[in-house]
Design brief:
8-stranded mixed beta sheet, 6-stranded parallel beta sheet, 14 strands
Length: 348
């Protein structure tokens, strides 16, 4: 081997050594189409293994994605000494059991949202985290995207005056009975799947917790999941009004209204990884866009950023960006909306 080849190999080995080695539990579409390809582009992340309950499916996914190892068992991956952390994209009802097993095996965990089916379940993970010493984080990737950081910065700078209201909509159409998001026992339904983003991002932008919640739900008569949920979060001097639906036109938007201006996040949740994002700041000069300024956020992949932030925190021995305590609070507000829809009252 030439000196140049030896040097190239040493450089490659050094890059791998400076990266967190990830394993993935499951071959869900979000993992194979979005998260894994994004993490493979990361500076501090490398995906070394993938598992499925079907070994052939795991091997196929590994071959397509260039992942070295494939397992036909989640447990086998968890016992791989070359895996430092796991990403869990499994159905909602499997999040807590497999996060616990991964932590017990000494693996750090990035688990898809919602991390649990209840706040009580989420609290169990705090005990597991503290006992095992691993890092565990809920994967709300939007919090790592620069457009949300920019929006929060504009709010804190007083660009739109005092915040008065947030209006959010997140919807798509899925009435397939075989889809896991339509199984109530598995944590299906609009609020758990996409309404959680409205709650999470309003808390993120405002940097504080609501004081009470109100909700209204329409359930699919056959599937029993909430196909349409609307919610109000009362922050005292600020209100969030949000609607989410799994049986409505594909749409998403988040707008922040202030005393002197408006921030409009055009594609807030499924931000594209291949084109710039835009945030509109409107001074309210007129109703025809005369006071609008379009701020462009450069091309980036929020899943790459999320993975690298987690990886770097572990490699450098620092806390992960989003603590489990925040995940517990988000679940508490999801539950409050569900309770309000049943009671017809404001819930805390």
């Amino acid at each position: 081997m030439s000196e140049q080849a030896i040097h190239a190999r040493q450089m490659a080995d050094e890059r791998i050594m400076n990266r967190l080695r990830w394993g993935v539990l499951g071959v869900a579409g979000i993992a194979t189409r979005k998260v894994i390809p994004a993490m493979q582009k990361g500076e501090f992340s490398t995906v070394t293994a993938i598992a499925s309950r079907n070994g052939e499916r795991a091997r196929t996914a590994a071959d397509e994605l260039g992942i070295p190892k494939a397992y036909g068992s989640y447990n086998d991956l968890l016992h791989d000494p070359d895996v430092d952390a796991v990403y869990i994209p499994l159905p909602n009802h499997l999040h807590v059991p497999w996060t616990k097993r991964a932590a017990e095996a000494g693996k750090h965990v990035l688990c898809e949202k919602p991390i649990a089916l209840s706040a009580a379940e989420a609290r169990q993970l705090i005990e597991v985290r503290d006992r095992t010493g691993v890092r565990i984080q809920e994967a709300f990737m939007v919090r790592s995207h620069p457009q949300w950081l920019l929006a929060r910065s504009l709010i804190r700078e007083g660009r739109i005056g005092d915040v008065r209201a947030l209006i959010g909509v997140f919807s798509y159409h899925n009435d397939n009975p075989a889809n896991i998001r339509n199984v109530p026992e598995w944590g299906g339904g609009a609020l758990m799947d996409i309404g959680c983003y409205l709650i999470n991002t309003s808390r993120f932008l405002l940097g504080r917790e609501p004081v009470r919640a109100s909700g209204a739900i329409d359930r699919d008569p056959a599937l029993k999941i909430d196909r349409l949920t609307s919610l109000l979060l009362d922050y005292g001097d600020v209100h969030l009004a949000g609607t989410c639906s799994m049986q409505m036109v594909y749409y998403q938007r988040m707008q922040v209204f202030g005393s002197t201006g408006l921030i409009d996040i055009r594609i807030p949740f499924n931000a594209p990884p291949d084109r710039p994002c835009e945030i509109v700041v409107d001074s309210g000069k007129d109703l025809f866009g005369g006071g609008q300024e379009v701020l462009t956020v450069p091309v980036c992949d929020q899943y790459t950023i999320q993975g690298d932030l987690f990886s770097r925190a572990v490699l450098e021995g620092r806390p992960v960006p989003e603590p489990l305590e925040d995940a517990v609070r988000n679940m508490e507000w999801i539950e409050a909306v569900f309770r309000s829809a049943e009671s017809g009252r404001w819930e805390q």
